[in-house]
Amino acid sequence: MSSPFFKRLVYWFAPHGLVKRYEFWRHKIDAKRIYSAYRLPERELVEIFPGIERQVVGLTPGSFFRPPTMVLPLAELLTLMAICQHKSFQKAFEIGTFSGESTQAIALSTPPESRVSTLDIQAYEPGLAFAGRSEAGKIEVLIGDSRHFDFSAYAGQCDFVYIDGNHTYPFVKSDTEIALRLLKPGGVILWDDYIFDPAHPDCSGVKQALEELSLPRLYRIKGTRFAVHCSQ
Ligand SMILES: C[S@@+](CC[C@H](N)C(=O)[O-])C[C@H]1O[C@@H](n2cnc3c(N)ncnc32)[C@H](O)[C@@H]1O
Prior knowledge:
Layout: H1 4-13, H2 15-36, E1 42-43, H3 45-48, H4 74-87, E2 91-95, H5 101-108, E3 115-120, E4 139-143, E5 158-163, H6 169-182, E6 183-191, H7 205-211, E7 218-221, E8 227-230
Helix pairs in contact: 1-2, 4-5, 6-7
């Protein structure tokens, strides 16, 4: 009576098994319904960046435990780091510093000579994640509204732009146009929150702005909320 078949039978009909199966299928159906509304083609990270599977990324313990809002979930922080490490970006520009966690992640996963500029409408210093750490030497902290900031010194200079500022449509549209101007040939743009939480409909601007763009090589990264554009 203790055969694997019997165990499976018991599991299948036991109340907890039924609940698990219900949850499994409900999750699958919900995911299908939610993702079918997103029109960018979905790609695995390794399809977009062949060879990225060889990267090993490292984080400081301060980044392990993450608040539920505003900062990237751990898997996405690691995805961001893997992309930066794989591409060895020399000049990165971030819109939306907040606590500096993603800025720090970019700085930690790019070569020592690379530079990272990060812009926020508010000043969060001195509490930024990289304050007092060696990677701070690579980071330029800028304060300003991305709609009015003078980006001319960065035009055509960046091989990576990370867009994570105001998530409403007019801002994302404007930040995206700016990013395209900052980008060098071969550069990469990454947007957070292409997949947005329905509890925050104000974040739907990323989806709306990106889906109306006719940009080649623009994808949703499978398993994340990121969208990415590789200029070549
Ligand atoms: C989601 S948080 C950024 C989180 C950060 N990238 C991270 O993952 O650790 C968004 C940030 O964008 C900033 N922001 C909002 N509107 C902005 C604007 N017009 N220009 C620049 N920054 C803006 C906010 O002050 C906020 O700190």
